[in-house]
Amino acid sequence: METLEEVMLKDKVKLSEPVKKLEDKWKLLPSFLKVKGLVKQHIDSFNYFINVEIKKILKANNLITSDADEMFYLKYLNIYVGKPDIEESFNISKPISPHECRLRDITYASPITVDIEYTRGQQRIIRNNLPIGRMPLMLRCSNCVLTGKSSEELARLNECPIDPGGYFIVRGTEKVILIQEQLSKNRMIVEVDRKGLLTCSVTSSTHERKSKTVISTKDSRFYLKHNSLAEDIPIAIVMKAYGIESDQEIVHMIGTEKNIIFAMAPCIEESHRLKIFTQLQALAYIGNRIRQKRFGNSPLNKVDEARQTLHDLILSHVPVENWNFKVKAIYTALMIRRLIMAYDDEATVDDRDYVGNKRLELAGQLLSLLFEDLFKKFNSELKKIADMTIPKQRATQFDIIRHIRQDQITNGLVHAISSGNWSIKRFKMERAGVTQVLSRLSYISALGHMTRITSQFEKTRKVSGPRSLQPSQWGMLCPSDTPEGEACGLVKNLALMTHITTDLNEEPIIRLALNFGVEDVNMVLSGDFSSPLVYSVFLNGNILGIVRHYERLVQAFRAMRRAGYISEFVSIYTNLKLRAVYISSDGGRVCRPYIIVENKRPKVRQQHIDELVQGVREFEDFLKEGLVEYLDVNEENDCFISVYEDEITTETTHLEIEPFTILGVCVGLVPYPHHNQSPRNTYQCAMGKQAMGTIAYNQRNRIDTVMYNLVYPQPPLVKSRTLDLIKFDKLPAGQNATLAVMSYSGYDIEDALILNKSSVERGFGRCLVYRNQKIFMKRYANQTCDIVKGPMYDSTTRKVIDIHKALDTDGICMPGEMVENRQVMVNKETPTVTSNPLSGSNSQDKLEYRKTPVTYRSPIPSYIDKVMISSNEEESFLIKLNLRQTRTPEVGDKFSSRHGQKGVCGLIVPQEDMPFADTGICPDVIMNPHGYPSRMTVGKLLELMGSKAAVLDGKFRYGTAFGGDKIEQLSQALIDNGYNYLGKDYVTSGVTGEPLSAYIYFGPVYYQKLKHMVTDKMHARATGPRAALTRQPTEGRSRDGGLRLGEMERDCLIGYGASNLLLERLMISSDAFEVDVCSKCGLIGYSGWCNMCKSSSYVASMKMPYACKLLFQELQSMNIVPRLTLKKYNDS
Amino acid sequence: MVHIDCSVANAFRRILLSEVPTMAIDRVCILNNTSLIQDEVLAHRIGLIPIKADPRMFEYRSADDTEPTEHDSIQFNLKVKCTRKSDSSGETSDPDHLYNNHKVTTADFKWKPLGNQANMFKKGDIHPVHNDILIAKLRPGQEIDLQMYCFKGLGKTHAKFSPVATATYRLLPDISLLEPIKGELAKMLKKCFANGVIGINDQTGEAYVKDARRDNCSREVLRHEDLKNHVQLSRIRDHFIFNVESTGCLPVYDLICQAIEVLMTKCKKFIDILDNVDNEPEDDDDE
Question: Is A1009 or A256 the better-scoring residue by pLDDT?
Answer without folding.
Answer: A1009
